[in-house]
Amino acid sequence: MDLESFVERFAVERRGTNCLKWDALQERFGDPDLFPMWVADMEFSSPPQILQALRERVDHGAFGYGIPDDSYFEAFDAWAVRHHEARVERDWVRFATGVVNGFHWMVNAFTEPGDAVLLATPVYYPMHAAVRNSGRKLVTTQLVCDESGVYRYDLDDMEKVIAENDVKLFIACSPHNPVGRVWTEQELEQVLQLCERHGVLVVSDEIHQDIIVGDRTFVAAQEVAGGKYAGNLVTLNAVSKTFNLAGLIHSHIIIPDAGLRARYDRWAKGVVQTELNILGATAAKAGWLYGDEWLDGLLSVVRRNDAEFRARLGEFTPHIVIPELEGSYLLWVDLRGHLDPAHVQEFMTKTCRLAVDYGEWFGQQCRGFVRFNVATTPANVDHGLDLLTAGLAGLH
Ligand SMILES: Cc1ncc(COP(=O)(O)O)c(C=O)c1O
Question: What region holds the Aminotransferase class I/classII large domain (predicted)?
Answer without folding.
Answer: 46-386
